Amino acid sequence: MTLHREGKSLLLTAIIIVLAINALVAYFLPEQVYIREAVVVVTAVFYLLLVQFFRVPKRVTNINPQHIIAPADGKVVVIEEAVETEYFKDKRRQISIFMSPINVHINFNPISGIVSYFKYHPGKYLVAWHPKSSTENERTTYVVKHENGTEVLFRQIAGALAKRICWYAKEGEAVIQGTEFGFIKFGSRIDIYLPLDAEICVQLGDKPVGGETVIAKLA
């Protein structure tokens, strides 16, 4: 299993803490076998959950200039027309994907093109499904300009548990559909804003696979 670079230092710290806790319990409670075993189980489960969170899955993207690929694993929680107020300042088709703590939190470029806009916004840590999380939480905004001139906006949004958003692309850079553009730690959401004539290919409650599932098609 490959582990993501964003998790390596945390996992090293976590294993040291887990070993220290078990050593202390064994030292101070040498005769409490059930307690010692319970602590071993709990700390092992905790560590395994961290490991699975930072795993890097193998994904195969079928690159297609008309397709919008899911930027993350998770659950589709919003499909609607909405006014995008930061960049487009007009109505767009919005798709939002909520990532729970058990999902892989790697973020994938939904299309190929040039990053025409990027901005980081510090902010609050409301739960990711809160209506105001898109405008008040810590977040980043990316806009990628497609080869045909169409622009697609996607926004990383921190949640109540997510305390760090990582991003790798820069304004002016070329990006390739399905490649990694960022990572959000411990629960979060991604909003995608598409042209009104885009064909939506998912439904509420669907669980797309980041880097693989086609969530929309450009006209």
From TrEMBL:
It is found in: Cell membrane. The active site is at 188 (schiff-base intermediate with substrate). Pathway: Phospholipid metabolism; phosphatidylethanolamine biosynthesis; phosphatidylethanolamine from CDP-diacylglycerol: step 2/2. One of its GO terms (molecular function) is phosphatidylserine decarboxylase activity. Is synthesized initially as an inactive proenzyme. Formation of the active enzyme involves a self-maturation process in which the active site pyruvoyl group is generated from an internal serine residue via an autocatalytic post-translational modification. Two non-identical subunits are generated from the proenzyme in this reaction, and the pyruvate is formed at the N-terminus of the alpha chain, which is derived from the carboxyl end of the proenzyme. The keyword Transferase does not apply. Its cofactor is pyruvate. Keywords: Cell membrane, Decarboxylase, Lipid biosynthesis, Lipid metabolism, Lyase, Membrane, Phospholipid biosynthesis, Phospholipid metabolism, Pyruvate, Transmembrane, Transmembrane helix, Zymogen. It catalyses: a 1,2-diacyl-sn-glycero-3-phospho-L-serine + H(+) = a 1,2-diacyl-sn-glycero-3-phosphoethanolamine + CO2. InterPro entries: PS_Dcarbxylase, PSD-A. Catalyzes the formation of phosphatidylethanolamine (PtdEtn) from phosphatidylserine (PtdSer). Heterodimer of a large membrane-associated beta subunit and a small pyruvoyl-containing alpha subunit. This is Phosphatidylserine decarboxylase proenzyme. It comes from Aquirufa rosea.
